[in-house]
Task: structure prediction
Amino acid sequence: MTKPALLVLASERTIYEIRLKPLLDALVEHGVIASFAAIDRDLARLGPATPQRSFNLVVAQRNISGAQLAFLKRTGAPFVYDIDDLLTELPANRARDMTASNGRIGWCLAKAVAVTTPNGKLAQELVRSTGVDFLDRNRLLANGLAPPAPAARDWQGRAETLLWVSSDLPLVESATPILARAIAETANELGLRATLVGRFPDHIRDAFAACEHVPWLDFPAYREFLTGRERTIAIAPLPVRSREHQAFTDSKSDIKVVDFLGHGIPAIYSAAFPYRESDLDPRPLVGDDARAWQTAIREIAAEPGRFISREEVARVHRLRAYGSLAAVVGEVIESASGPAMPLPRPSLNAWLRAAERSLRRWRRRG
Result:
């Protein structure tokens, strides 16, 4: 039997490379699919050229573009819809006019043969927010991790570095601003050097006496960065209670647990819904109280080895290996794949972007 080929509508390249591409690589490796190709919001190919010229099933990701939506409607191709955030109710610091976007999200939820989410809470909140009941087509697809588990670390002695990762402005900044100050004060008290990866406002960076800020790492580099951390503890603060964006916070995934515990880094996690309901059982869990966070940082920095074990790290890799997660979507792919269809041509915007890049290169050479 011929294996199906997939086409990914990658609406956000970074999230595609974090959540979907490693899983699709595993599907190819395990013989579930023959190949996959990804196209951006303007229908231009992503990544190196491949010989794939057709597809049997589409994977649409997050907030697809108007061009991607038009392609789905024009072809009537069967598709699986993957969404990993409550995009219909963004926090105030990320909010914009989402009328058109929410319409596309609702259409995808209604028309997809299956909808994959990292947890059931997000699926429930999307039904409430959009009015589209897709729970009978919902499949849970957790965030994955590539093997192998890291080599045994030296967890003896005190920590030297405090790691804080945030892909966007930290939600605690608006919900519990005192918490960020308390974290910095405790790190300074203990002589911990802070390593901040991602987007952080100046006043948070400046609050640490010793701070290394890494504004951006692509996904492979980020996971490699985590693998190389020594004498490091991490924090994953997230508001437990929020008047402004409770549903958004509750619908987040447990990817920080996968990142930290899966790479053998002892960490302190918020007691927010995504972490306290995670099947990975992260510990310790701390509420919104600043003093509780300070106490937890002092304790874990003094004896990191008490808060992690090789068995816990191995369990993350057993539960969240991409090969294991491939089974979740393999059955959907097999049942939903249709006849082969040709890959789309890039939109006019893609051609204009390519021409602009060529012009810039020509000007630099001149």
In short: DSSP finds 15 helices and 14 strands in the chain. The first strand starts at residue 5 and ends at 9. The chain has a mean pLDDT of 89. Residues 348-365 form the longest helix (18 residues).
